[in-house]
Specification:
Strand order of the largest sheet: 3-2-1-6-11-8-12
Helix content: 25-40%
Distance between the termini: 49 Å
Largest sheet: 7 strands, mixed
Number of strands: 13
Structural class: alpha/beta
Number of domains: 2
Number of helices: 11
Strand content: 15-25%
Order of helices and strands: EHEEEEHEEHEEEEHHHEHEHHHH
Length: about 325
């Protein structure tokens, strides 16, 4: 739900990323203009900071402040079996996000990718609707609203920990800085390629796990994962407590987020198999009840719970067997 009559002048939206196709990253034509227009429509009075790279075509774009950062280039986090490096845009995301947040002067801020857009402002009210907090791993001053797209509960059929989406963040500016004030990643030397495949199944941690863990490690250095599928009971418990005590996890429809074509329609993450592997809003509410407010009643019906269970029975749990068989074959 949205309230277009409300003023949002205590919010700054950091739209981060390329405006057009940049280097090796494809960009949907016109998507950044759509992104900026959506902010004006759903957050009237909010400040828009466009944090992007040099030599982008900015004609016709509606923003209040422009932040241009030097491109740090792609980073190497892994290597293919043939020894060639795998390139990621992790440092680019850190630089454009942090540079924008450092210019924010309002108490609240949003991190919004330049290839996504708003469909409402429900996240503003949602951020204040879950006031109780537990003590363990509660490092943010207030809750931060995030998207469940790529906030996976399951990956390759296995339950996973700390797999937090990097798409959308809304909360206090100081809290977003706690999350995104990160050191740049050095390139992984080829001699260390085997060391990051030491976790269960040999899968290194995902980029989303890496970002969230690096933020958490500034406050809790002992939190760690050995790989994507490191789902030791203590890791899952710690991950759930971090979610419950710091965040609110909702779907794009719940929070008012629109996705570019790359992540919608027939995209793998937008299909039933991809969606049912993500955390659902009522599942996060279950965590809130468990760790923060035992009197809270999640907004969910039995039918919804059964439907999700059956969908996972069809799409998620069989994938676990497939993964196990593949690993046995080597």
């Amino acid at each position: 739900m949205s309230n277009p009559m409300t003023k949002f002048d205590d919010i700054t939206v950091v739209v981060q990323g390329p405006v057009q196709t940049f280097q090796d990253r494809e960009q949907e034509p016109g998507i950044t203009e759509k992104c900026l227009s959506s902010v004006r429509a759903y957050l009237p009075g909010a400040t828009i900071i466009l944090s992007t790279w040099p030599d982008q075509k900015l004609d016709g774009l509606d923003y209040d402040e422009l932040v241009i950062s030097e491109d740090p280039g792609p980073n190497i986090r892994n290597y293919h079996k043939d020894g060639s490096p795998q390139f990621y845009n992790n440092n680019r995301q850190i630089v454009s996000t942090l540079a924008g947040l450092q210019h924010v002067k309002t108490p609240y801020a949003i991190k919004l990718r330049s290839d996504n857009f708003l469909t409402g402002n429900a996240f503003v009210a949602m951020q204040q609707q879950f006031p109780k907090r537990g003590e363990p791993f509660s490092f943010l001053r207030e809750r931060v609203v995030v998207s469940n797209v790529f906030t996976r509960r399951y990956a390759k059929g296995f339950e996973v920990a700390f797999h937090l989406s990097d798409f959308f963040y809304y909360g206090l500016t100081e809290d977003l800085l706690k999350i995104w004030d990160l050191e740049l990643l050095p390139d992984l030397p080829s001699s260390q390629a085997d060391s990051i495949r030491g976790g269960p199944g040999g899968f290194p941690i995902d980029c989303t796990q890496m970002f969230w863990l690096r933020a958490l490690n500034k406050f809790y250095p002992d939190l760690s994962l050995t790989g994507l599928l490191d789902n030791r009971p203590e890791a899952i418990e710690q991950s759930n407590q971090c979610y419950a005590n710091n965040l609110i996890i909702g779907s794009p429809a719940d929070i008012g987020l629109g996705l570019c074509q790359k992540f919608s329609g027939n995209a793998r993450i937008a299909r039933t198999k991809g969606k049912c592997a993500q955390w659902h809003f009522f599942e996060w509410q279950d965590l809130y009840r468990q760790y923060c407010d035992v009197a809270f009643q999640p907004d969910v019906t039995l039918r919804q719970r059964v439907r999700l269970f059956l969908t996972r029975l069809l799409h998620v749990y069989p994938t676990k067997l497939e993964t196990v068989l593949k690993l046995r074959k080597g």
